[in-house]
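User: Please predict the structure of the protein below. I'd like the answer in structure-token form so I can feed it into my own downstream comparison script.

Assistant: Understood. Taking the following sequence of 236 residues as input:
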Amino acid sequence: MTEAKYKKIETILKQRIIDQTYPLNSLLPKELELAQEFKTSRPTINHAIHNLVQEGLLEQRKRLGTIVRRNKIQQEFTHLIQSYNQEMSTKGLKTKTKVLYFQKVVPNSEVQTEFNISTSDSVFKLIRLRYVDNHPIVKVTTYVPVSLVPDLEKINFSTASLYLELKKRNLAVTHVVRKLEVKKASSEIAQKLAIKENDPVFCFRTRGYTNKDQKIEYSIATYRGDMNSFIIDLKR
């Protein structure tokens, strides 16, 4: 058994778990079947499976077999103020951002209330789809008053961080208030996040404030429920 052989098989099995070729809670094919597929020995397959069990992606149960237990991404979003890319990079994950929409718009009634503005004022509306390892993880819709950052439209947010750009303009977000709801995915959200309609999603509404207690950001972030978990760190 060579290291290259079992590592290659381990990588292939891991990718099948991530892309749901092997769905969550399904049984992994038997070792003999995998050995035949990869034209290798059962010990080689066993070694690859053992590593994925240690990683938390698989679980072995007596008299049942090996079950897919895909790890969720642990988000510190609930108690840290940092950019998405910054948080994911600390976990060693590869990220990508796709900008779905970025325009100046007339604020709807909800956004007017959030910023205490009227329809005569404009806001930037930024919609981004954030990926981890090429899988869509969260859709984020963000509003920022144009009067506070009029030059924001020059920024390419497929690569730039909103929080960093605000910091450059002396409008750093230093305090946030977040409200969490668990909802069923709409057809539009399901399509964007590559999940099924009515699957559970985490919906966070974030109000971001500067050190002068000025509201600078209002965001709605919808995370897919099957690939995310959130850490709540409380101190007394």
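That's the full token string. Strands lie at 58-61, 65-68, 73-75, 95-105, 123-132, 135-145, 175-184, 200-209, 215-224, 228-230.
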